[in-house]
Fold Pentapeptide repeat-containing protein.
Amino acid sequence: MPILERRNLLGNADFSWAQFSGNTDFAFARFLKKTDFRSSRVNLLDFTSCEIFSFLRLREIQQIEGNSDPPIILLRDLRFWENGHILLEDFVPSGISFLHTNFHIVHPRIYLIRMDWGKEKIILDDIFKRKIKAEKEEERSKWEIVYKPIEEMSEEKKVEEIERCYRQIRLAYEAMGEYPDAGDFYLQEMRIREKRLKGIIKILHWLYGWVSKYGESPARAFCWLIGIWLGSAFLYLFTGFNFSGYNVLYLPKFAISKIRILLAVSFAFINLIPGYFRFIIQPQTNPLLTTIISIIEGFLGIIVLTLFLLAIRRRFKR
């Protein structure tokens, strides 16, 4: 295993097209000038606790020949000085660990260019999705290096750190204006955050994700709003209601009194947001079951409309 631990790389260092056998250890090294790993073949690159003073680029990193797994790169507990930053470009990052590293000191310190995260956008440190057991002999060394430090953390610290890692990546994409990717990592951040919530807060957080994908999908919230409206209208057809065309004030009169489904849809729309539209109708007496349904409809309507408006606000803030 090549070991460059605690070394000072004083000048520009170019490891392009190099093939490292086994694991390569740069832990605690100091990169004072530009360092380039372009098209390098590695099994594991360990940059734990390195100090970055200038430019460190990892581009088109590949696994050594004969191994199909993505290369493991440990960017853990890094220290950035002056203009130090990292560029990750054009490779599969599913083997990168970001544990205990802050990539946002004064300004972004990491840039992610054309990284293929796959469909789910799961990072290596997320043991809730990618846990590897040490019982398998061929995976024991990988577990010892990558996952054992995470397993040794308390459950609370574990959740907080994985959530923080997702947040760091999200902020990096937002700083570059890559909002679709940032949104995907925001969803992962919220998924992990839910694990440390309790009671009614956890339920509300889950509903927030279910209705509007944590504010990332105005379309989903709008569909829920339409569903509540039309679903309530369908129920009103069976429970009965008092609502006729001539009772609607301030609107052009049109003959819908004989088309009951249109009356039910109109009645449901009036009850969808209590207080918003009721000024346009006269007070009426309805069956008890209809009244109960209208109360539930109004309660759900207010909640979903609020989440829809929050999703719109989040979209425009970007």
Q: What stands out?
A: The CA atoms of residues 200 and 270 lie 30 Å apart. The chain is about 40% helix and 15% strand. Residues 218-317 form one domain.
